[in-house]
Amino acid sequence: QDYAMVGKTYTVIATSNYDAEVSASVKVKVTAVEVTSLTLGAETLVMEVGETYAMKYTLGPDNATDKTVKWDIFKGDAVTIDENGVIKAVKVGKAVVRLQSLSKYNTVNPTPVAYCEIDVPPTAIAFEKEAYTVVLGKTLQLAAVSTPESTLPVKFEILSPASQATSDKFTMTEAGLVTAVGYWAYYGYGENKNVYTVKVSYVDYPEISATATVTVDEHLATECSVSFESMTMKVGDTFRPTVNVVPADATNADLYHFSATGTSYGAVKDNNDGSFTALKAGTYTLTVTMDGMY
Length: 294
Fold this sequence. Notes:
Layout: E1 9-15, E2 23-29, E3 37-40, E4 44-46, E5 52-54, E6 57-60, E7 69-76, E8 79-81, E9 86-89, E10 93-101, E11 113-120, E12 124-127, E13 131-135, E14 139-141, E15 144-147, E16 154-160, E17 170-172, E18 177-180, E19 195-202, E20 209-217, E21 223-226, E22 238-239, E23 243-246, E24 257-262, E25 268-270, E26 276-278, E27 284-289
Parallel strand pairs: 4-11, 13-20
Antiparallel strand pairs: 1-2, 3-6, 5-9, 7-10, 8-9, 10-11, 12-15, 14-18, 16-19, 17-18, 19-20, 21-23, 22-26, 24-27, 25-26
């Protein structure tokens, strides 16, 4: 037990109790017993954030001279470990803890060492909303919420309609950027192909996932009107009426056409460029039409 004796040689003398001149001697060299193995109580662990685990170990042989060991984190930052081998999961992720022999008498190369791989998985993932809407021609960035909070990489994908997963009308990157490129005709009944189911999952934990819906909004005008209710023109005059659309950013805001009817046929000419010319006296009604709205 006295490390200072290691490597030294001592002479042990035995003398007879009956005759002091009768004796014998032997030389004893003190050598160290090296550590040849380290074994942890577990090679893998799955823990939850906040959980602690006291790791046990076995050092061999039992009579090793110097049993000093050191605990540390070999890889990752999901856990901490103290000098007694108590592991604490501090965040979602993966880590590897290591136990090393620090025996000063070891000649074994490499020095005995043991590892334990630890996984601290997330418990859930969710979209920020259950249902999203993206306007035709626009983009939308989806986002996921991790439980517990983490920075683990996630992956987004389109689930359904399955036939539209590769459609050029709706695209989504693995980073969750949605682009509403086109719109499927929908008349208010049957399947609405403009409603897509999307999925998000962890790259390292694909079994943990969540879904949401993204609806492409055609964002059509709900109202349209011209800039005047009545006006008087002279024959030969040309005018260009202003069309007011609600909402102003409707996807079909520029898709309208005019028609004129009145008591005198041919009283006004549509120049097909948004302007009209008065050809003869008469009264007529100018109508602006936009996707079935008047």
